[in-house]
Amino acid sequence: MSEENSCKNIILNALLRRNPILVSGLVIAPAVVIADSFFDAVTLVAAFSVITFFTLLVSSFVPKNIVYSIRIILYTVIGALVYVPSAILLKYLMPEGIEAMGVFFPLLITNGLIISRSESIFFLESKGHMLLDIIFCIIGYDLAVLIFGTLREILGTGMIGGKIIGMPIVLSAFQYPFGGFILLGILAALLRVIMVTVKRINQK
Predict the structure, then answer these.
(1) 98-132 tens-digit pLDDT
(2) Could you read off the pLDDT of 122-172 as tens digits, one per residue?
(3) What number is the average pLDDT over the span 49-61?
(4) By the 8 A CB rule, do 146 and 41 touch?
(5) pTM value?
(6) Cβ 173 vs Cβ 28: under 8 Å
(7) DSSP secondary structure string for all residues of 65-112
(8) Is the pLDDT score of 90 beyond 70?
(9) Residue range of the domain that includes 134
(10) Which of 46, 126, 153, 158 could be bridged to 37 by S-S, CB 3.0 to 4.6 A?
(11) CA dist., res. 131 & res. 71, Å (int)
(12) What pLDDT score was predicted for residue 166?
């Protein structure tokens, strides 16, 4: 596989085929509980992006010959070290949003993307491909959460960004975690349908 095709494949996998939340089902709980509006979704993706990127970047230097259980502990320690400056920065930039995240903010240091992807994919690649993979996995998660949070706000409150848009019907259930799970399932199914449809078209 050429370098160009390899990079394209990494990007498509991260954004669509193996989207962290809509396909792989990673880091669902914070999205369902926190991202019930556009602005709350922005807060979550900011916190997730900063903590995940720098934790994975530093963790890439952990030697692979270390016992698996010790590596997992080291990833958590690295995440905790990354969390401290990240918390200071994010609480300065968006204090109300970070405060509203509660316990889900510090729990991001142990999010599933860090553990599963670092062990199964990221560190089997070259450093360049790994960095590309990390960036687009984070972007894939962020885009999905932003769309998810915006739709929840529109469907659940008839507003977007806190501004009324005149929805004829408001389904407040989408503002609750169980409604979030339902909407997330619908979006995951929709993405699967789109990917299957595109694949069939390309095969003709």
Answers:
(1) 999 999 999 999 888 887 776 766 666 777 888 88
(2) 666 777 888 888 899 999 999 999 999 999 999 999 988 878 887 788 899
(3) 90
(4) yes
(5) 0.90
(6) no
(7) TS-HHHHHHHHHHHHHHHHHHHHHHHHHHSHHHHHHHTTHHHHGGG-H
(8) yes
(9) 26-203
(10) 153
(11) 19
(12) 75
Q: Is 96 buried (19+), middle (13-18) or exposed (0-12) by CB count in 10 A? A: exposed
* Share above pLDDT 70 across residues of the chain, in percent, rounded to a whole number: 94
> Which residues neighbour 68 within 8 Å (Cβ) at sequence distance 6 or greater?
119
* Residue 154: both structure tokens together: 């529109």
Confirm whether 182 is domain-assigned.
yes
With respect to residue 69, please indicate whether it lies within any of the assigned structural domains: yes
Mean pLDDT of 62-71: 84
Give dist(CA 62, CA 167) in Å, integer.
Answer: 51
Cα 84 to Cα 33: distance, rounded to the nearest angstrom = 23
User: How far is 50 from 10, CA to CA, in rounded Å?
Assistant: 21
Q: Which are the contacts of 110, defined by CB distance < 8 A and separation ≥ 6?
A: 76, 79
* Phi (first) and psi of residue 156, to 5 degrees: -90, -25
Residues 6+ apart with CB under 8 A from 77: none
User: What is the three-class DSSP state of 64?
Assistant: coil
The domain tally of the chain equals 1
Residue 88 and residue 64: Cα distance in Å, rounded? 31
CB-based contacts of 12: which residues, under 8 Å, 6+ apart?
none
